[in-house]
Design brief:
Shape: globular
Distance between the termini: 29 Å
CATH class: Alpha Beta
Oligomer: single chain
Structural class: alpha+beta
Number of domains: 1
Radius of gyration: 18 Å
CATH superfamily: Endonuclease/exonuclease/phosphatase
Number of helices: 3
CATH architecture: 4-Layer Sandwich
Strand order of the largest sheet: 7-8-9-10-12-11
Strand content: 25-35%
Amino acid sequence: MIYDNLKIFFQNVHKNILIVNTILETHSHFDIILIQEPPWSIICSILSSTSSKGEVLVGALHHLNWLSFARLPATQLDFPRVLAYINICLSSFCFFPRRDIINHRDILLISFFSNNVCFFIVNIYSDTSHSTLKYLKNTKVNINNLLIMIGNFNIRDWLWDPSFPYHASISDDLFIIADLFNLDLSIPTNLVPTRYSDIMGKSDSVIDLMFLYSDSRKLNNHMIHPEW
């Protein structure tokens, strides 16, 4: 099975194109890279039927060794805040974004096939208003074989952050969603922050989380890279 040794890297890059380029250049030993808050930049100008100067084509950073997947924006204010890169070595597994199931700027659902079985992974960005979690809870999408849910959830809670003494009520919604998808919270092998504050007096935090398929013994751990 492909997911026996599946290696996934994920990070919120805060729209920094240099960080994305560095990750793509140096992380070829990973199978999948999931990005939250990716940068969007001008790629080129294309022919236009309405302007002699053409139209500006805006997109994500591309790399020869990676297949990129993102939702197409409906407007200039609708750029996706999640992005996925699949190692080109895995192209035979037919990775494909499933906007037919979930079409949301902050949720990227991707399917792939292994041994003629369809599996899913999902990349999520949930801002401080938690609108993405509310959407998932209210929509109640039924997805079988969801292996991994990864994201920047912007929730502090003692359940995954030992330095934080409180429980957040929105965490209950997150676990309801995880239960619907038959997922369990994965505890990293090293308990270190995932967000380092550059504001004096504001503590570091753990807000990036991974949920894994409950019935799988193959997907069973992850670690945090403090240098990132």
